[in-house]
Amino acid sequence: MHYVSTRGSAPVLGFGEAMMTGLARDGGLYVPDTVPELSHGDIAAMAGLPYEEVAFRVMRPYLGGFFGDDEFRGLIDAAYKGFHHTARAPLVQLAPNHFLLELFHGPTLAFKDFAMQLIGQMMQAALAKSGERITIVGATSGDTGSAAMEAFRGLANVDVFILFPHGRVSDVQRRQMTTPVEANCHALAMDGDFDACQARVKDMFNDFAFRDGVRLAGVNSINWARVLAQVVYYFYAATALGAPHRSVSFTVPTGNFGDIFAGYIARRMGLPIEKLVIATNQNDILDRALRAGDYRTDGVKPSISPSMDIQVSSNFERALFDAYGRDGNAVSQLMAELKTGGFHISQGALETLRATFASGRCSEEETLATITHQLRTTGELLCPHSAVGVKVAEDHLGAVPMITLATAHPAKFPDAVERATGIRPGLPPHMADLFDRPERMTRVPNDLAALQALVRERIAP
Ligand SMILES: Cc1ncc(COP(=O)(O)O)c(C=O)c1O
Ligand SMILES: N[C@@H](CCOP(=O)(O)O)C(=O)O
Known about the structure:
binds pyridoxal-5'-phosphate; Rossmann fold; alpha/beta; binds the ligand N[C@@H](CCOP(=O)(O)O)C(=O)O; 6-stranded mixed beta sheet; 5-stranded parallel beta sheet
């Protein structure tokens, strides 16, 4: 199994290298050169298996022997043992043909834990073999950052720097990042929005002297291993509802396009997914792009689903790579145009995308109304991101079961949930004292040189 860049001119890598490399050296994102297909029988055999076993069967073909089977099983078990639900990702029925996949039972209460806990294990195992030390720099709109700190805190050979947009994450999210006491955790509140944070992280990767000097690694979904670990729950949920004997559809609250791209990979591996529905909040660039063929940023607008306040969706590049027939030059050209505001998607590529993806947008009012309505009718207390998903899914219900991904716990966004329901959801016992813990963070400017200087200074021996 080899990994190639979406821009076509970076070195071809094996799984371990791709995981430790993050962004490709031509600025692109790594994808497998071929997607392994699972047979009808392989998929049918997953029904009813523990989550950990499904993870092993789905991910193993991508590893190219980088981990031995027993070692990989051990890493998977260690990754999910801290989850607070025995099913890991339980399914709840909302309506006769509409189900919710609860992905918020991990340690930081968001779907990010599914991948981050596992790549934490995999990276530690890889570093133990190589004896290297790495510097992780990540960008977050709230959830990736807290999940990354939880997965890497206290490790002797890893420093974790997380850039988050100052004032644009919830208090719970901020405190999850600013309260770890371990000296290797660095929470950086940056002036700007998530797109600016993500752009500075990519700038650091594109500065080879800096990148190689600090041994930079990435844990955002630019890292292929993050996406891969998220493919698992599509198989787990779909087989629980009768796949591969019947098809299902998924609706995915979307920002950086990593989660829904994992669903796309599951579909290419043979899972019968009829449609993957992109659900956006008022930052609706992906919905506009799919409807009109024009991918154009119009500035990030703060919303009550802040983790999805994103306009430059990194992983859309991976989908474009396939839609343009794996033409790295074409993708490079589009990404150059994006730097000046946006690009037009060719008719052929648009038709390819529309064969797999549908889309919808949910306003702020609709988000609140959906939280209110779901509590009244089903008893399910949704976070605002999951509510965006449920609303858009309701507009796309059809003959096959629809599974909406519930991406975060309502307690991470108590203000919006209280506004919609009058109920202020409390934090679970393992986080009950979050607001009593002292915070530690650094305000930083949106300035590459200043950020690089800070990273260098903090990791200096
Ligand atoms: C709670 C929540 N929902 C949805 C999303 C969107 O996921 P993705 O960026 O993979 O599209 C995010 C952020 O990534 C998130 O934190
Ligand atoms: N919503 C995310 C944004 C970063 O996404 P990633 O999947 O690329 O890490 C967050 O919560 O940080």
